Amino acid sequence: MAETHLSPRNIPDRLEGRGARLLKSWESLLFVVACLIFIGNSLASPYFLDPWNLSDATFNFTETAMIAFAMALVIISGEIDLSVASIIALASTAMGYAVQLGFDTPALVVVGLSVGLACGVVNGLLITGLGLPSIVVTIGTMSLFRGLSFIILGDQAFTGYPGSFSWFGQGYVWWVFSFEFTLFVVLAVIYGVVLHKTNFGRAVYAIGNNQTAALFSGIRVGRVKFTLFLLTGLMAGLASICLTSRLGSTRPSIALGWELEVVTMVVLGGVSILGGSGTIPGVVLAALIMGMVTFGFGLLNVPGIVMSIFIGLLLISVIALPILWRRARRRLAH
Amino acid sequence: MMAKLLKNRELLLVGAILVLVVLIAWRFPPFIAPTNLARVYNDTSILIILALGQMAVILTRCIDLSMAANLALSGMVAAMLNAAFPGLPIPVILLSAIALGAVLGMINGALVWKLDIPPIVVTLGTLTIYRGLIFLLTNGKWINAHQMSDAFKSFPRTDLAGIPVLSWLSVVTVAAIFLVISRTPLGRAFFAVGGNPHAAVYTGIDVGRTRFFAYCLSGTLAGLSGYLWVSRYAVAYVDIAAGFELDIIAACVIGGISIAGGIGSVPGAVLGALFLGVIKNALPVINISPFAQMAISGMVIITAVAVNARAERRKGRVILKKAEAV
Amino acid sequence: ENKKIALVVKALGIGFFEAANKGAQEAAKELGDVEVIYTGPTTTTAEGQIEVINSLIAQKVDAIAVSANDTDALVPALKKAMDRGIKVISWDSGVAKDGRQMHLNPSSNPLIGNMIIKLAADNLPDGGDVAVLSASATATNQNTWIEEMKKVQGNYKGINVVATVYGDDLADKSYRETQGLIQSYPNLKAIIAPTSVGIVAAAQAVTDAGKIGQINVTGLGLPSEMAGHVKSGASKSFAIWNPIDLGYSATMIAYDLVNGAEAKPGAELKMGRMGAVKLDDNNEGAMADPFVYDASNVEEFAKIF
Amino acid sequence: MKPAIALEGISKSFPGVKALSDVSLSLYPGSVTALVGENGAGKSTLVKILTGIYQPDGGSIRVADAETAFPTALSAARAGVTAIHQETVLFDELSVAENIFLGHAPRNRFGLIDWNKLNADARALLHRAGADFDPTIRLRDLGIAKKHLVAIARALSVDARVVIMDEPTAALSHKEIHELYALVERLKADGKAILFISHKFDEIFRIADRYTVFRDGTMVGEGLIADVSQDDLVRMMVGRAVGSVYPKKDVAIGDPVLTVSGYRHPTEFEDINFELRRGEILGFYGLIGAGRSEFMQSLIGITRPSAGAIRLDGEILVIRNPSEAIRSGIVYVPEERGRQGAIIGLPIFQNVTLPSLSRTSRSGFLKLANEFALAREYTSRLDLRAASLDQDVGTLSGGNQQKVVIAKWLATKPKVIILDEPTKGIDIGSKAAVHAFMSELAAQGLSVIMVSSEIPEIMGMSDRVIVMREGRIVGRFEREELTAEKLVRAAAGIAEAA
Ligand SMILES: Nc1ncnc2c1ncn2[C@@H]1O[C@H](COP(=O)(O)OP(=O)(O)OP(=O)(O)O)[C@@H](O)[C@H]1O
Ligand SMILES: Nc1ncnc2c1ncn2[C@@H]1O[C@H](COP(=O)(O)OP(=O)(O)OP(=O)(O)O)[C@@H](O)[C@H]1O
Ligand SMILES: [Mg+2]
Ligand SMILES: [Mg+2]
């Protein structure tokens, strides 16, 4: 290990260049994994390398990924939101209800987004207003929001969405590029910029590393966190619009269990579950990996649960392998 | 006096449960018949056992999301053993389920201990892996009542002094865990590790190993519950107890166990589980739509954290001595 | 070149669908040039089925025969399949009209609705209270049957349907709901569970409550799962169609469509040894009558499915 | 005399830092060895190696002439090495007695914990440590100084031959410090070998028999205290002579900048009135727990006062949160560096720029070049020692972290700067740098409030001193009339000698 001399003055800005840091980063590891899976899939199935099939495959992850972006920020700030899947259900139920009242497509979008936002407000108020731990609060609201959908819908379903509404989940912007995929790309860029290039993003990191010190440094901790819960709510509302449009119907069990999928995606993307570190490119790569694994196994007609074993193993091993490797290297060095 | 009593979290919960039971009895008197209350307890036994395991883990500032999956896998293996060798004595099956559960818990514990992977990530991963293993083991096939031996199915139902073995087992578990938590160094280490892991190192407590033991405990209890669940409902398949991990955590939260670690008690966990158990059992009886159950659980959880947080909130240190007091 | 026909089920690992797969394989063997892909999600969700359907579209299968977890949610995905030239039928649990070319009912809904209440009534000459334990709140077919049952309820004098509860096709929930029923209705004489998960759980709960002989559990179930309860007396009789025949017929119909047959009202599609199915105005057809199992025949069928 | 414990050739590296290289140290029974050195010299690292918390990369430890290793904290305790660590490492939710005996609680014959014996033994140990409170109360209900006494009692609970104290007096008040000195004497008489780490020279010369000096992770001198002078020690520590210890410049005091009137809080403080003038350093003295920090934090909107008003340059100011305080030009450099100051996990430059982001960024978007420029400017003014500005602050020594923290608030270009215990746990060299900088700031027309519990610092640096006790102002002194005795009497509530 190189010893660095501590010089009293003229401290350099950085010790290593951009390239060196990039090479050592989590994202490059994920990138390699993604490439391996891509190659593996192409070899395993003749149907994989087809633009339309690849386009269909993106539907497997775009909706979860939208939420994962906002969730990444929440987790970096040291909190978690387990209620996202239930927000999808409640927002979808509200849109279904609005259809019965004769709302048209633009109004439905407004309803979906505002219900998502409202759920975010509830979470945000409980967590930042009352200072309750987010993991417990959102386990509670997870039951509450989906429970409300069950009370409204029971064993019924809302259907009859207007034809134009189906564009969000089934429409294409250009050639094979679906609306959902385009939205995914746009959101990835927006979230990447917000987290990595703005003062707001820096505040998120600061809060995740040391909330008290961030507060003393003049960061409006409560406000930032509240905004983050609003964002996850809003993203869940957006995902709800896409999913509802793709399914063309609403049942209270919609998107059941997605919260764990979203968290898995975020963690696989290299976001520390303890807060304080992680990047959007990492999450994007994780989304692509999870989507490709699901689709690749699907083409081989492997049952979904086997894919989840794979994702589970991937989750543990991508975190464990670098640790083991570092240890082995240290042992060799001695 | 009253205010002091109310400050005690466990008493508050006892009160809440009593009020709940009285309210239910008002709508539906047979609910408070002793036999029915015993039945509710029996029905909640498994949740109580699991909540105790989760409590140990949460005390050390970890979480075990894989408990329900562990339960399902151990239960499935118990059922498969029974189906393959119907003559195998029940204690052997029970012990193998417990042993398997313990091993699965150890895997969690070892990953947390030796590789330092955050507990939520470890158990999120093993949650899907354990459940997936059931599928690989069975190809998704169910094991049904007719494939299980009568001894297998009747063990938890057998009456001992008028109370089923299932209830007895949970009582014994509660007593054993209470002893471990309050009177053994390991039990105290749970609190130390969760209360201040950094300081625990300085105290000579091996934080990782303590967590490992907490996971062993939760795994063991999940294994025990696996057999109990499968024999009680006389069916085993991939999805048994799916989503139950959240009920377990909810029971702990309602019981006042701090998710931040270091705070909690055995009576709290038991009462938290009972509270949920009473609600679950009461709703169908008092004709509240089963669809409302989920929303009610949610409200209860939120209320419970809010109340507990209030109780925990430190009252400011008083520096000022008031003039009149001088 | 073999024709690829996908048999998509509600969830893998359910005995009923495994039996249907047996029938489909039988049909494939009989036809010679068919490869059956038996697939489905691992939990009964519409999202899971959509993912499966998307990967089938990508594999360019020739036909999809699906038992749906959700009437409406699968429609967009199945429409896309049809757009890409894939023949789509639903069986057992149907898809809305836009999402398939035809639907094969195992039996007709009115016949089933009548059958489940008749099974209860036949054992209650003096009438009495009866409750329904339904399946997953989002399942299509159970709710239709219960509606049909309620239509003909008047024909069975003295039979009171006092409650309908939902076990969500979960063993523990069904069990608890049954316990609730036994508690709330002391005079309950029969429980009708038109679901294979629910009927087993209900029979178990009745057995545990020591109510064998007082409460008769009936409905739709699998012989292999119910044999024990018929023997113990918790269930006097129950009904089900033959899932092997169902899988067989669905495969045969799909094959017929792939070979150019057209699904339109009034058309007759070939079902091999099961004869032919005639489509109604909704492009739906019924395979056969449900079949009653009791102590006299259940052991024999338990070996098959 | 044979050493009780001897270290030979110990080395220890952290990523990017060589904390200790080839150091040797022997501790003798019945003797107090003082370990001195600048911040980051490696003192605490050595303590952690001695107590089994860190493993050395090389070198050997010998206890009573036998080579040993301390793979865990427990094994060190078993070998008779016990320590009071720099940070108090205790458990808020456990009782005092449990805190003392955690890990080696007395058991009954079933192997279960014997609670009665535990509490009785704890009471006895507390008494030895000079504290007499109920061992069954929960630790969280104790004040910071009492917690430290619990830590001392814990160290006594092991039958030790070696007792290590890493800056034990940093959190204690006058009276408790004296009780600690008495305790050290008793331990010495019992034949224990004691390692005493401190930045306070008066106490080193008062209680130590031997000294060892560390510089940049190496041992640069050792011997008998009787043979050295304070200046010699300082020269060894920093490798150069340190000039005037309190470089207070005479500055023309200007008009009032900050006026605080009628500040009160229901439980923490009341009737706080004072003015702060341009170019002035206003000292706030008091015993620990006098309420100074609480009051200062209310000035920047962390705690809400129940009544009172602030004027800045004559204008009434309403401050609801630290961000508004920073924007109006009042900044607070907090006392608890680890918890409130440094953001471990973020690099140095991001720590420095955090409160100034609105200046370095453009319409909410970060500008890295500006950030580095700002960080470079302020860290070099404070003579920070680091490998790079992109390094995690967590890898710096305590003193260097403190410099980052001060740089962070200076970079906001404040009008009023409140420094809460700015030199707590800082070595002599850095301390002088901070003091010089404070004088410099005042000379440039800034107004400084300095909260300190060290009398020499208060007397050396302040133009005026306010003394607080139990949440109230109990004394105001001009520089000319200051004496140590007056300060102590006011702070402790002892009436002026007639
Ligand atoms: N856990 C760690 N990781 C990385 N570097 C560390 C760690 N602990 C200490 N160091 C580094 O080792 C060196 C010695 O630190 P140490 O805490 O021993 O200093 P010290 O002499 O106790 O200083 P102070 O008087 O400020 O307490 C410093 O450069 C510090 O940055
Ligand atoms: N018993 C305690 N419990 C909780 N926090 C405490 C306790 N004692 C002190 N503190 C915290 O320590 C800090 C210092 O306390 P305070 O402001 O009352 O004293 P002070 O006069 O500033 O003394 P000093 O700064 O010398 O410690 C405060 O932030 C306070 O919250
Ligand atoms: Mg130190
Ligand atoms: Mg203070």
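The first strand of chain A starts at residue 172 and ends at 174.
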